[in-house]
Amino acid sequence: MAIEQEVLVSGEEGLDAPDRFTVPSAIATPEEAMMGVAASDGRSSAEHSIISLRPGTDAFADACRKLDRRPLGYRFAKRAFDIAFSAVIIVVGFIPCALLSIAIAFDTMGSPIYTQERVGRLGSPFRIYKFRTMVADADDVEKYLNAEQLAEWHREHKVKDDPRITRLGRVLRRTSLDELPQFLNVLVGQLSVIGPRAITYDELAHYGINVTLLLSVPQGITGAWQAGARNDATFETGERQEIELGYARNASLHEDARVFLATFSAMFGKGRSGR
């Protein structure tokens, strides 16, 4: 069994990230991570990098950069697309989003915009923006969820048939329109249009030794997991990690185009229950 230690989280005062999260102490070497091979527990510390780094520090960021094998041309093209596409969405959607915000405020009796701290590329924390789809006091999970649902929530950070979701919220989630405010995150460089889903500090532990690989590429509004077997691939089975890490290893314009087109099918296909 891999030795585990607590790694302090680097966050801003007042944000809701936990004070610490637990990850295995040994992380895969760049070659192992790119091949999808986990580090064995029997090796000496000289053969593995040891995680004693806080996300958000230069040392942690350097560990992530070593795993980023994306060509410079691809990075430039991806960022150019992110800026152009998000700018168009923001301009075209400004008035519809303003009207939608009013409807959400009446439906949820709370602020139409929901923010939460997530972990971005290189381990940097940022605030993600979404349209509110749940009741205003949804963070009080024990008020709304039964024991079985609470267990699912703590394991996956999502619940099937979540009772906290409003009627309008279900429509927004089914069509992914609740993600529209995230184009502001894309415009300022905190997210990409396509990439692994931005997760919370608690969820980093699911990626174990491969957490630096996950954070070596920009997180996205949509990605291989969201556009694919989203509701079936979970942290518990390990399928979600495989999908997200697979994208991080093989990011390319071809893969981005495939995910982009698949996203529209997912948006108008069967409903989703993810966050």
TrEMBL record:
It comes from the Bacteria. Coiled coil: none annotated. Its main location: membrane. The chain crosses the membrane at residues 80-106. Pfam families: Bac_transf. InterPro entries: Bact_transf. GO terms for molecular function: phosphotransferase activity, for other substituted phosphate groups. Residues 78-268 form the Bacterial sugar transferase domain. Belongs to the bacterial sugar transferase family. This is Sugar transferase. It comes from Collinsella ihumii.
